[in-house]
Write a structure and sequence with these properties.
disordered N terminus, six-stranded mixed beta sheet, 33 strands, Neuraminidase
Length: about 450
């Protein structure tokens, strides 16, 4: 792996106390950047059904089929972006999880497609091996690995049930996180939520339901949940909001454990979400790789004030990890709508306020309790004195005003990689009327990584 050695100076690594006594703000410096343009497509595999040659055919508000390419505008709320659906091919977009590899490449993945189960039946699920040229500002997709279920592992009918190759789509699973291993990849899914395993060819080998304290953890998109035939009958029970499943999936350094981090809080029997000291809290669930079973151990991750979701999760060592935490805002305050209750096409309804990468600690001593938040870097205020950014307009600063930032991992002793999920073509946080590109950045954060 290429090493980037930069002189650390007091100017760029001054530490300031945050509003919470147990949290410290660390300064980050932009060391390089690579951008994959939003409108980046690849053909479906030659053996894929004709149905998958075009994607985004079910993205109108009423979900009616639309075959004519480029006729459905992408929208971020009231704002219309510059890209239209359906697409000719499969978009390389929605990057939602990343892992640094020893050969200098990175594995990442596209999530379920176009934002929901109902809209994504023609969006193929696939992983990407990527090589970044930080100095040149470019990214090379070395390999695309399309997922399939030829051995009928999925315990429910998939969209392409009757096809030969049985490619998986965004209506089957919503993959959001990735951990490469010798014989394939572990993936975190939001629909079940499930832990998934695929082999090195992308073929599904395991679909593992989630449990906590012996009870199922289920979202409303779990395929076993169905609407009652009788309107007076009680709905099937589920305890997560839609899109509340596994957004983060980390692996212990010895490879023996996986740690699934839910995006949403679990609802308890009294109908209330889990909390810690008045803050909504989500679960880190421990999984034993050898037995392929949940261990029953878990920890609580409390959100900061204004925090609403996590974006990615990777271990640094046996007890510390990186977590992206964010609000639901997008865009910058200088272009905020005068009245957020009346969104308009030329302004940001809810500008970004909280976009962070936290360093956390959890261990045997605090099982069942809250993780310790050691400190964070502010993704809206990354120092850029050398003008390395390829996007953004703030002098001396690189910011990430995106609604979803879903890729983080350590690159070496002093650097991390960070990247957004552009929700193509729906997210427009960099400009009010342009679909976001995929921005991957190398950040120098040595003191943050070494923080205790």
């Amino acid at each position: 792996m290429t090493k980037f050695l930069f002189a650390s100076t007091a100017l760029f690594f001054m530490i300031a106390a945050s509003a919470h006594a147990d949290e410290t703000v660390f300064t980050a410096k932009l060391a390089g950047q690579a951008i994959i343009p939003a409108n980046t497509m690849v053909p479906a595999p030659a053996d894929a059904p004709e149905f998958l040659k075009h994607s985004g055919k079910f993205t109108t508000p009423d979900r009616k089929r639309t075959e004519a390419l480029g006729t459905v505008p992408g929208k971020d709320g009231a704002r219309v972006t510059d890209l239209k659906l359906p697409f000719d091919g499969q978009p390389i977009q929605g990057f939602s999880g990343i892992k640094t590899m020893a050969d200098g490449t990175f594995w990442t993945l596209s999530d379920n497609g176009f934002g929901s189960k109902a809209t994504s039946s023609d969006a193929m699920l696939f992983l990407h091996q990527i090589k970044f040229d930080w100095e040149g500002g470019k990214a090379e997709v070395v390999k695309n690995l399309f997922l399939s279920d030829p051995n009928r592992i999925a315990p429910f009918p998939i969209v392409l049930e009757g096809s030969d190759k049985r490619y998986l789509t965004g209506a089957d699973f919503d993959i959001e996180s990735v951990q490469p291993v010798t014989d394939g990849f572990w993936l975190g899914d939001e629909f079940g939520p499930y832990l998934l395993k695929v082999d090195t060819e992308g073929r599904l080998t395991d679909v593992i339901p989630t449990t906590l304290d012996g009870k199922p953890v289920m979202s409303p998109d779990n395929p076993v949940i169905s609407t009652p035939a009788n309107p007076a009958a009680k709905m099937a029970a589920f305890n997560l909001k839609r899109s509340g499943g596994f957004e983060g999936l980390a692996m212990s350094k010895d490879g023996s454990k996986l740690y699934g981090l839910l995006e949403g809080a679990i609802y308890q029997d009294d109908g209330k979400m889990e909390t810690v000291d008045g803050h909504t809290a989500i679960r880190v669930l421990e999984f034993d790789v050898a037995s392929k079973k949940w261990t029953g151990r878990s920890w609580l991750y409390p959100f900061a004030d204004k925090g609403a979701s996590i974006g990615d999760f990777n271990m640094l060592d046996e007890t510390t990890a990186l977590v992206i935490e964010r609000d639901n805002g997008a865009g910058t305050k200088d272009k905020a709508c005068a009245d957020p209750k009346q969104p308009k096409p030329d302004c940001f309804e809810a500008p970004a306020e909280l976009k962070r990468v936290y360093k956390i600690e959890f261990n045997d001593a605090n099982v069942g309790k809250a993780v310790r938040k050691i400190g964070y870097i502010d993704l809206l205020n990354i120092q850029d004195p050398d003008n390395r950014k390829k996007a953004g307009a703030k002098p001396g600063v690189y910011d990430m005003p995106f609604v979803t930032i879903e890729n983080v991992d350590r690159v070496d002793a002093t650097h991390i990689v960070i990247g957004n999920d552009n929700n193509l073509p729906f997210s427009a946080g960099r400009a009010v009327d342009k679909a976001d590109d995929n921005e991957f950045s190398l950040l120098e954060v040595g003191e943050f990584l070494n923080a205790k």
